[in-house]
Inverse folding.
């Protein structure tokens, strides 16, 4: 298997902790971690296998002077990516209690951008076992990627990641 590029944002919170956890579960030397705020389309070009991690509400929301969201800064770069031969797996963090009507919506937004660019997205996850009212990340009865709730269901994170990796790793070449 070729090296995986794991791009995540924002830095310094749950999305980064999950990125480190995913990289550790895949194995040392198999994943390169990249904060999305420091990345460009050229960085994504280096990989055929990509994992993208996003948070619907992140650390920047709670800062007294929030900077532009890491992903918002990167989004225009998607127009410059060559998608042919690349596989994208997505994970998103959300809060299914406080934001039940918007659970992991940013995951859906990211998925739509990739879909609009005809990117190959792998690693869809059934909505079964998740409690929420609505989500932009749901297509049919599946999330477009792996939804995680580190606020209220952190005890389920490891098992959910393991099950998701069982889906995506065989599909990465």
């Amino acid at each position: 298997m070729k090296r995986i590029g794991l791009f995540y944002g924002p830095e310094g919170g749950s999305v980064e902790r999950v990125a480190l956890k995913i990289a550790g579960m895949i194995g040392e030397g198999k994943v390169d971690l990249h904060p999305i705020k420091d990345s460009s389309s050229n960085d994504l070009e280096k990989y055929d296998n990509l994992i993208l991690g996003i948070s619907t509400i992140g650390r920047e929301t709670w800062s007294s002077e929030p900077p532009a969201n890491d992903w918002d800064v990167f989004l225009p770069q998607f127009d410059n990516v060559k998608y042919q031969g690349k596989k994208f797996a997505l994970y998103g963090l959300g809060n299914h209690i406080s934001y039940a009507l918007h659970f992991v919506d940013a995951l859906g937004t990211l998925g739509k951008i990739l879909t609009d660019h005809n990117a190959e997205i792998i690693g869809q996850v059934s909505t079964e076992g998740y409690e929420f009212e609505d989500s932009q990340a749901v297509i049919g009865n599946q999330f477009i990627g792996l939804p995680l709730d580190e606020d209220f269901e952190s005890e389920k994170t490891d098992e959910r990641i393991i099950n998701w990796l069982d889906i995506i790793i065989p599909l990465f070449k």
